Amino acid sequence: MQAWKTYQDQHQERFLEELKDLLRIPSISSDSTHQTDMQTCAEAVKKSLLDAGVSKADIYPTAGHPVVYGEKIVDPAKPTILVYGHYDVQPVDPLDLWHTPPFEPTIRNGMIFARGSADDKGQFFMHVKALELMNQSGTLPCNIKFIIEGEEEIGSPSLGAFVSAHKDLLKADVILISDTSMISLETPSIEIGVRGLAYIQVEVTGPNRDLHSGVYGGAVANPVTVLAQMIASCHDENNHITIPGFYNDVLESSAEDRKKMAAAPFNEKEYMRDLGVKSLWGEKGFTTNERTGIRPTLELNGIWGGFQGEGSKTVLPSKASAKISARLVPNQRAGKMTELLLNYFKKIAPPSVSVQCFELHGGEPYMTPLDSLAYKAAEKAIEASFGKKPVPQRGGGSIPICSLLEKELGIKIVFMGFGLDSDNLHSPNEKYDIANFYKGIETIPYFHQYFAEESQKKS
Amino acid sequence: MQAWKTYQDQHQERFLEELKDLLRIPSISSDSTHQTDMQTCAEAVKKSLLDAGVSKADIYPTAGHPVVYGEKIVDPAKPTILVYGHYDVQPVDPLDLWHTPPFEPTIRNGMIFARGSADDKGQFFMHVKALELMNQSGTLPCNIKFIIEGEEEIGSPSLGAFVSAHKDLLKADVILISDTSMISLETPSIEIGVRGLAYIQVEVTGPNRDLHSGVYGGAVANPVTVLAQMIASCHDENNHITIPGFYNDVLESSAEDRKKMAAAPFNEKEYMRDLGVKSLWGEKGFTTNERTGIRPTLELNGIWGGFQGEGSKTVLPSKASAKISARLVPNQRAGKMTELLLNYFKKIAPPSVSVQCFELHGGEPYMTPLDSLAYKAAEKAIEASFGKKPVPQRGGGSIPICSLLEKELGIKIVFMGFGLDSDNLHSPNEKYDIANFYKGIETIPYFHQYFAEESQKKS
Questions:
Q1: Contact criterion met (CB below 8 Å) for A415 and A395
Q2: Nearest-CA residue of chain B relative to A280?
Q3: Tens of pLDDT along A166-184?
Q4: 3-class DSSP state of A356
Q5: Which residue among A308, A350, A425 sits closest to B215, beta carbon to beta carbon?
Q6: What is the spatial distance between Cα B109 and Cα A282, in angstroms, rounded to a whole number?
Q7: By C-alpha distance, which of A94, A128, A120 is closest to A178?
Q8: What three-state secondary structure class fits A9?
Q9: CA distances from A101 to A97, A106, A125, A327, A431 (A)
Q10: In whole angstroms, what is the distance from residue B413 CA to residue B367 CA?
Q11: CB of B213 within 8 A of CB of A301?
């Protein structure tokens, strides 16, 4: 048995308790009332890094929430792994659907329930604990750096400036990110791509005040109706997106790639049962895995306008708003697609209303090359700890900072995610399986070992 | 000068103060947290009737909010006028758009701002004060009865049972209602019809929980998108309602009637400026006054689903809901139209979601015959106090109890409304012009006088 595994077996219950402490901090980055919690969480992350054995750790203020940096340089000649993660979490509403409070971590059926348990506190914390066990067992084959930010869930607005101001500090050979999922512990997989994101808000204003729907109904455009018509215009009967130019830059997958993808295990009935739906939905001509992996999409994330209370109010609302986001695939670009969306909604607005649109956040799609050192090391690490070669998979989510990090630092990214699609990310009752948490901690030192070996082979 | 007018001139400032006291009670019938305020308000109405000179007044409990009844029988041989009004008010949200608090009546530029000032406290209270001045000046030509209910804004669910249990108590020769508007003090008008209402809620449920829009986006039907598509399907490019059967029972107005209607003064530019819109909207082939008067409509009163907070949340919502209401015209029936709407939304739901619909409230359209005694008396009363014959007009709003009252009591209704379309009914900054309040009080005794005369002529 590996030396680090022995250490892990002796200490991993404490690791779980430490994770629970981190999960108790309500670090919701999008909500300005949680400003103090963000600082508290950054300090807790810094302390955890120091406890795990980094030789230095700092909190860097930014224009938004702070970035936590830490490093352990074993030998400048050895390869360096830069671990990226985020300590901020999504909002928790609708709160009444949580079975236990989102910031009181609760263990049920071998899973830990809390906002941030899988996304991403529970996942970046595996790297902190992996450092501790490599450090304590004297098995640190690479240098390690950490950059744990507090704005991932709001599109990382301050990270670009930070990275570009600290290129030397962040110098590394690979970026390792655990913020994605795998198929299951029985079928380990590696995400080789994440989708990009273009997220906007559309606001439709009709009359200058809420009106009596009887006195004015029928003579004045209703902004809710108009917004609904605008939204309905975005898809055709095959659920193909009809916004002109939407698919222009999509790199179509080859028949061979699609065939490989189709080999991944997928049980449609189980998928539907888990979601409680009677039938699936999506772009005609593509499978479910393709719809969430290689195809761009347009989702309504929220809508509101007029009277939403108990009972009835006969009002013709002054305003209706929606949050709308597109998931992007190579070679779509977030900036261009955001412009495309903004222009579309402005253009189709009828003269009876005024429409204001603005960007909320965006991020580029990203692909890990299968022939990279980093991918090979990740593949071997998972094979070593799981006893099975992982399946490469395209992920549906977005990690907007990927192309930023690659561009600024000139290095490749590998995703080693240990979450599951059923973790309720961004939803009530987010959870992380404790077995996955432990398995991740065990696997990470293998990655360090194989990455050192692969790097040596190459040089 | 009429005796009552002299009394009014001496006392009307006190009348305004008394109205303010009534407006301070937040009697929102749709909100169960205002239960106590409803009782308080009913008691205040009863006291105002006793102070004005009714010989008896009672509060009748119902399954919902209480009904206030009062009467002054001068002589059983004289005709009896039954005044209907309501002491309940609409909700006040969005509260931040009010310039002064909705339940702190404030006078600015000759107008009294408060929720309920025009709809309907300020209007039914004119009848209370008119009774006082007829009583005090010894000029009561008719018997008078009052029925002031507390559930008009929620569809009067308890009034039917009350009326049908108290037919003898409510026996009268005409029902007089001040809960509508006129064109202006310079162009007085009488509403000869009100539209009916069929108000429903539609709830679309997709997955059993909010999902991550990246992990699942593109593969699972988004309930906001589906709801938007359902709403968009209700109108065609001419803003004609496309729900099958929607117009089946509409009694088309004759070319002659439409010509008469077109003679009413209407300034489209001023109308648009007041509403802050660049162009009007509506069913092709009809004028604005026709669209709000003789045509049925379909309005979105509210919509909500998914994330509505600050910033962005990449969620694929589990549920989206809307409040939808149709205004009805003769001979559409509320029950049938409600069924039509409920069935439509259930029927068009795609299999990827489940749809639940239910009725919120409804009411029948109503027309006052122009050759009725009551209409003639109202016409003469307005001519006497305004010096001008009123224009007959079709109103856009709904007073759902009209056809109920007519059916149960077997008598006609006449609308003598003194509000203005610009009173912001159901909106922030509801107001009532003090001049209209005073003019209404002055006009009502004329109605009593002419109704007595017309009744005598007939018999």
A1: yes
A2: B220
A3: 999 999 999 999 999 999 9
A4: strand
A5: A425
A6: 58
A7: A120
A8: helix
A9: 10, 8, 21, 30, 12
A10: 8
A11: yes
- In this structure, chain B runs to a length of 459
Q: What distance in Å separates the CA atoms of residue B138 and residue B140, rounded to the nearest whole number?
A: 6
Specify whether the CB–CB gap between B3 and B132 falls below 8 A: no
Q: Chain-wide mean pLDDT for chain B?
A: 95
- Rounded CA gap, B352 and B206, in Å? 7
Task: Please compute, for residue B248, the number of CA atoms within 13 A of its CA located in the half-sphere on the CB side.
Answer: 8
Check A207 against B276: CB less than 8 A apart: yes
Tell me the per-residue pLDDT of B356-393, one tens digit each, with 9 for 90 and over. Answer: 999 998 889 999 888 889 999 999 999 999 999 998 88
CA B145 to chain CA centroid, nearest Å: 21
User: What are the tokens at A66?
Assistant: 């702070």
The 10 Å Cβ neighbour count of residue B101 is 15
The CB-side HSE value for A195 (13 A sphere, CA atoms) comes to 31
- d(C-alpha B142, C-alpha A412), whole Å: 92
Q: Are strands A315-316 and A211-212 parallel, antiparallel or unpaired?
A: antiparallel
Q: CA-CA distance, B232 to A233, in Å (whole number)?
A: 9
* pLDDT at site A237: 96
Task: Name the amino acid, one letter, at A247.
Answer: Y
Is B93 in a helix, a strand, or coil?
A: coil
**Percentage of chain B with pLDDT > 70?**
100
pLDDT, tens digit, 9 for 90 and up, residues B26-80: 999 999 999 999 999 999 999 999 999 999 999 999 999 999 999 999 999 999 9
Give Cα separations from B187 to B112, B385, B387, B440 (angstroms).
Answer: 21, 12, 10, 14
A406-424 mean pLDDT: 93
State the pLDDT confidence band at A421, using cuts at 50, 70 and 90.
confident
**Which amino acid, residue A457?**
K
Distance CA A152, CA A150 (A): 6
Q: How many Å lie between the alpha carbon of A302 and the closest alpha carbon of chain B? A: 4
Across the interface, of A225, A302, A352, the residue whose CB is closest to B305 is A302
Task: Give SS3 for A147.
Answer: strand
Q: Decide if B303 touches A, using CB distance below 8 A.
A: yes
By residue count, chain A amounts to: 459
* A38 within 8 A of A31, measured Cβ to Cβ: no
- Residues in B touching A91 (Cβ below 8 Å): 307, 309, 313
B317: its two tokens: 């919502």
Q: How far is CA B358 from CA A222, B198, B346, B454, in A?
A: 22, 11, 10, 46
Beta partners for residue B80, in sequence order: B143
Cβ within 8 Å of A, B 139-198: 153-155, 181, 194-195, 197
Q: Taking the C-alpha atoms of A91, A94, A96 and A98 in order, what is their torsion angle to the nearest 10 degrees?
A: -60
Q: Is the pLDDT of residue B300 over 70?
A: yes
> Exposed, middle or buried by CB within 10 Å (0-12, 13-18, 19+), for A236?
exposed
pTM: 0.83
Closest residue of B to A207, CA-based? B275
User: For position B424, what pLDDT does the model report?
Assistant: 92
Residues from chain A that touch B300, judged by Cβ atoms under 8 A, are: 222, 224-225, 228, 305-306, 317, 320
Q: Which of B195, B423, B426, B430 to mutate: most A Cβ within 10 Å?
A: B426
- pLDDT at site A1: 67
If DSSP codes are grouped into helix, strand and coil, which group holds residue A325? strand
Q: Classify the C-alpha dihedral A386-A389-A395-A398 as positive or negative.
A: positive
Residue A200 and residue A358 in contact, taking contact as beta carbons nearer than 8 Å:
yes
Which residue is listed with tokens 């990310």?
A425
The pLDDT value recorded for residue A60 is: 98
**Residue type for position A449:** Q
Q: Does residue A102 have a pLDDT over 70?
A: yes
By three-state DSSP, how is residue A392 classified? Answer: strand
